[in-house]
Write a structure and sequence with these properties.
The protein contains four helices and 13 strands. β7 (about 125-135) and β8 form a beta hairpin. It has a single domain (about 5-235), classed as Acetoacetate decarboxylase-like. The chain has a seven-stranded mixed barrel with strand order 1-3-4-5-9-10-13. It is mainly β and about 240 residues long. The longest helix has 11 residues, at about 100-110.
């Protein structure tokens, strides 16, 4: 039985960049057979998420309040077939943060490593620029985004379809510090309205890591406001 522990925060804003790939390419990168790709109009989805957070509170540690941080992760939409009734879930390749405290406590909080990265976020006019590097200056994700008039996606016909997809991803799995297990974390969130964005991707680490998957950029959104809560649910064997 895992000791309950959680992190709560208020969302300043969230950017999500969606990449489409075929399910047969997607499934080759899942660590266990019981994580099966979700499929929408013949496509599966891997997304890069950037979260700007404030009022970060780590429970049950006393006095940990008022932190502000930026985090990011690649999230992949899956079905969890290990349950008696399969349900939507998320596979996360890795979480990243700019806050040293989160990076140091991650093995205890979530049985996971959460590496430090450097964020360079700027704006010019209505365009947001994202330059995210690992500490050794290797690139993680570079993109530009600006508000779009219309929603345009080959995966999700309507923006509401995308919102439903995100809302359904409560449970998540990520590689843990224990090589034969995945760490389970639930994310409960107040879903804000999503705004479509036009985006240009200059670099995405997953293109190299999943070079055989032929990832194609599909769509981007921005959201702001709402309360987020991550709760550790324990470990699950990959054997």
């Amino acid at each position: 039985m895992a000791i309950p522990r959680s992190v709560t925060a208020n969302l300043i804003e969230r950017y999500i960049f969606n990449f489409r790939l075929r399910p047969e390419q997607f499934i080759q990168h899942m660590p266990v057979p019981w994580l099966r790709p979700q499929v929408f109009n013949g496509w599966s989805v891997a997304s890069f998420c950037i979260l700007r957070l404030k009022n970060v509170i780590i429970s049950p540690l006393p006095g940990a309040f008022g932190f502000q941080t930026i985090s990011c992760a690649y999230r992949c939409g899956v079905h969890d077939d290990s349950l008696s009734m399969p349900q939507p879930s998320v596979y996360i390749t890795d979480r990243n943060t700019d806050l040293p405290l989160i990076a140091r406590l991650a093995p205890w909080l979530f049985s996971d490593t959460i590496p430090m990265v450097r964020f360079n976020l700027s704006e010019s006019g209505d365009t947001a620029h994202f330059r995210i590097n690992y500490l050794d200056r290797q690139r993680l994700f570079y993109a530009d985004a600006r508000p779009a008039r219309d929603w345009n996606s080959q995966v999700f016909p309507r923006l509401s379809d995308f919102a439903e997809f995100i809302h359904g991803g409560v449970s998540s799995y990520t590689p843990s510090i224990y090589g034969e297990s995945l760490a389970m974390v639930d994310l409960v969130k107040e879903e804000p309205a999503y705004e479509p964005m036009d985006a240009h991707i200059d670099f995405s680490w997953l293109d190299g890591a999943w070079s055989d998957a032929e990832l194609e950029f599909d769509s981007a959104v921005r959201a702001h406001g709402g309360r987020y809560k991550w709760t550790y649910r324990g470990l699950k064997s990959v054997l």
